[in-house]
User: What shape does this take?
Amino acid sequence: MDAELDRLWPQAAPGLSDEEILEALDGPCLRMNFVSSIDGAVTRDGHSGGLSGAADKRFFGLLRRWSDVVLVAAGTVRTEGYADMRVDEASARWRTGHGRTAHPVFAIVTGSLDLDPESPIFTAAPERPILFTTEAAVARHGARFAGLAELCVTSGTEVDGSAIASALRSRGLERILCEGGPALFGSLLQADVVDELCLTVEPTLEAGDAGRIARGRIPSRAMRLVSVLQSEGTLLLRYVRAR
Ligand SMILES: NC(=O)c1ccc[n+]([C@@H]2O[C@H](COP(=O)([O-])OP(=O)(O)OC[C@H]3O[C@@H](n4cnc5c(N)ncnc54)[C@H](OP(=O)(O)O)[C@@H]3O)[C@@H](O)[C@H]2O)c1
Assistant: This one.
């Protein structure tokens, strides 16, 4: 049984259906999705999964259903133990019914290519993954991914956020869902290519030394609140970039 989600703002509406939530999301953009505690922790015991409750999980699944591509940094891929990028059956049915591929493309950003080519990310991928990486990493490890992934290569030590956004769009992947982590969010904010942030605030206090949702040095980026959903004290906030 899925968690109930009520809209509190702008117009109150109880018990939103999947379709109502998806309708509000539609339109191509680069959307970030994070979960945090009230005091801003993005992990419990080193994982975001420890923080995420039933409402966040439902919304997370719907964001993947919406997306053409799920973009994730290698640090998060390693820490959270990502596998092949597959949505559940209901989402796959919805997607094919809306003229999309059954599953989104998985795109990973890695300066090092320190990823396991034998992981199901590559060996069981329903769509060919894309690796955003550097020339130096390709020279060292590129051959291991031949035939397993498309390599999108940059010359410096870091992949530029605007290069990522434009490379995805040029492949027709316009609904971009980025699931983090904080370093990649910083790169995308630096390039000012983030259109939206979906932030779930779980009603817990964690203290400790957990990180924040974004890292790095950027000019302040103003965001505008567009909707507030709630479920048993969990808030699901949606912000768009105020340009
Ligand atoms: N609460 C949430 O919603 C949420 C969401 C996501 C992650 N997290 C948490 O965040 C933590 C992971 O954070 P993290 O510090 O590892 O940050 P991260 O952004 O997940 O990963 C950083 C790594 O990704 C690659 N990377 C990111 N941006 C890059 C760029 N512009 N160019 C080249 N490579 C880039 C590099 O990989 P290489 O090392 O391969 O070069 C870098 O070391 C985990 O604890 C995870 O649980 C929480």
Remarks:
- The mean pLDDT is 97.
